[in-house]
Amino acid sequence: MRARLALLTVALGLALGAASCSDVHSEPGAAGFGPGEIIADATFLDRIRTAPFEVSFVGTRRVSFHYVDPVGGAQQLIYLESVAADGDGHVSIDPLEMIDPLLDPERVEVFRMVQSAREEFFFNHRDFRIRDVALFGANYRATVTEPDSRVANRGCVQLRIEAIRKDRNEFLVDVDIETGLILRAREYDSVGRLVGEVAFESIFFGDVDPARFDDPSTTNPVNWRPLADGETFDLPVGAPALPPRGFQLLEERVVTDPLGGEWYELIYGDGSEQMFVFFELETVLGDTANVTPDDEVGLFGIGPWVVAEGVLRGQSVIVLGKLSRSEILTTLESCLD
Amino acid sequence: MSPSCEDRRSRLALALGEPRPWEPELEAHVAACAACAAFVERCARAVAALTSLESRVAPGELSAAVEYGFGEAARAERAARALEGLGRLEVPRTLDGKVVASTQAGHRQDRAVEHVSSLSSVPAPAELERAVMASIDPSVSDVPADLRQRVELELNHPELSVGRRLARNLTALAAPSELDERVDWTLRHLDELRPRRALRLVTGGLVAAAASILLWLGTTGGDAPAPERTEFRFKVVEYDSTADLSPFAARLFSSATGGLTDVRRR
């Protein structure tokens, strides 16, 4: 023990000495944070959390995903999109130009229509976000990497977002100093490969024409409603008793899929990432008295995303998240407890 | 999905159009397999949703238009419009001289054939297919001027058009303003920096050693991830595409991946 303490003291002394010899620029940037500083300012983090819903802007973004598909190999999607928000909860995301893969014109048009129909999901769930400051502080660390970065000709502070438990992907985000809006978010996997980037190429702040925003019922993969007071469901399986570490239940609602099926949805979060659990509300089997099916779950994943779908005790269930297969399956199994 | 379920899914989808009970083997499987029972339920809902849609009567002139479109006259019209839309190619300049020379000397016909045969062939432009496709649409009566211009640019200056396309997709980067200051400062203090560099090398090595020690100390404890489980109270099947998921799950997954699975290469 004494030997370990002695080594630790020597190591710290050397590290401090090296820092004093360095002539790296260490002055705070325009946001008041210096390089290497860990962000503990809850007000600043909360400003990042609320900015997408309170700032009115129009801009062009470059979106790129680089995922590894276990069957198809490396997959890539790169395109430009136009995005707008009115600071009052209305958003608009429209694909502009397809860069990769090169599709024939008919497929490009279909892709554009499908992407436009998902704009609310993209705005709320696809991109990096601080969703809960307290949970974020418990599960992540935000360190200043560049106090004065620039994105889309705007002054930003660049942060490295790392999970404290080291089993999640890392992010580099550039936050607009004036508004708190994230202008660029880059996601890296455990070996440092870039797996996703959403970056503004241009952005303008100010009022947005209301005609730009579509009817929300057409811009979501599902239509949803909050639970009524006291509303519960009698299901053969329960809510997960063992969600992944760091995750808490944040929201419950009822969603209707495009074919009219109703699902009880639970949204878990760890302050940034989310896990979605769906239980189908309609009875799957008319008469379960004489049925003894085997519980079975199908699993599929691309890049950091994994989805599991199956039937447990006659109940259809879906779990989706940026989690390991083991975490997804453990979550599912805890529904049987 | 088990192989037995995969075999039966297409038969189940076809059987939906028939009144129940279906053949005994199918009925027994649906009663015993929850996944296939759920599949039948989903298909039945999809059929009900589609059949509940109001059917529309096709406009009267549609049949006549379709019949005409398959006829010889319409095919000839489409071909003529496609040819009109092609960019003009310049005739090789040597052709005129070769024709005159061959008409003024003996064996005019042979020489003319020989000279013409030696001319290089020009491949059909890539825009031809698009122009033909556009000509099928009756509402397209003329090729837009900018298309003609683009075809000419593509043919005459292919390197320009490729260069423009590539350059357009590049993100323009601006050098940070403090770079000039840093370069100036470094040049002014070169002599001072040389001894400092030596010191930094030595210090850097020691810091690396210290970091290794800290890492060794750190890995003996800390909040390491839990070991992965491999055994569960249900059967786990690995899918190799979103086609094995229900439409709802596939759509959710596609949204989560930003639409990547919609354009995924197999």
What does this protein structure show overall?
- The complex is a heterodimer of chains A (337) and B (266).
- With 337 residues, chain A is an alpha+beta fold.
- Chain A is 20% helix and 40% strand.
- Chain A has 6 helices and 15 strands.
- Chain A has helices at 2-21, 42-54, 105-116, 119-126, 133-139, 325-333; strands spanning 56-69, 73-86, 91-100, 140-151, 154-163, 170-176, 182-188, 194-205, 223-226, 248-256, 262-269, 274-280, 296-302, 305-312, 315-321.
- In chain A, the strands form 2 sheets. An 8-stranded antiparallel beta sheet of chain A has the order 3-2-1-8-7-6-5-4. Chain A has a 7-stranded antiparallel beta sheet with strand order 9-10-11-12-15-14-13, with helices on one face.
- The radius of gyration of chain A is 23 Å and the shape is globular.
- Chain B is mainly alpha-helical and 266 residues long.
- Chain B has 13 helices and 1 strand.
- In chain B, helix 1 (3-15) packs parallel to helix 3 and helix 6 (94-104) runs antiparallel to helix 7.
- The radius of gyration of chain B is 36 Å and the shape is flat.
- Chain B starts with a helix and ends in a 10-residue tail after the last helix.
- In chain B, 12% of the residues are buried.
- Chains A and B meet through helix 1, strand 1, strand 2, helix 3 and helix 4 of A and helix 3, helix 12, strand 1 and helix 13 of B.
- Strand 13 (296-302) of chain A pairs parallel with strand 1 (235-238) of chain B, so a sheet runs across the interface.
Task: Give the neighbour order of strands across the main sheet of chain A.
Answer: 3-2-1-8-7-6-5-4
Tell the overall outline of chain B.
flat
**Assembly classification:** heterodimer
Major pleated sheet of chain B: none
Helical content class of chain B: 55-70%
Unreliable sequence segments of chain B: 218-222
Distance between the termini of chain B: 19 Å
Percentage of residues in DSSP E strands of chain A: 35-45%
Q: Report the order of strands and helices of chain B.
A: HHHHHHHHHHHHEH
Tally of alpha and pi helices of chain A: 6
Backbone CA Rg of chain B:
36 Å
Q: What is the makeup of the main sheet of chain A?
A: 8 strands, antiparallel
Give the helix/strand class of chain A: alpha+beta
Helix content of chain A: 10-25%
Radius of gyration of chain A: 23 Å
The chain-level mean pLDDT of chain A equals 84
Rounded to the nearest angstrom, the distance between the terminal CA atoms of chain A is 43 Å
Number of helices of chain B: 13
Number of strand segments of chain B: 1
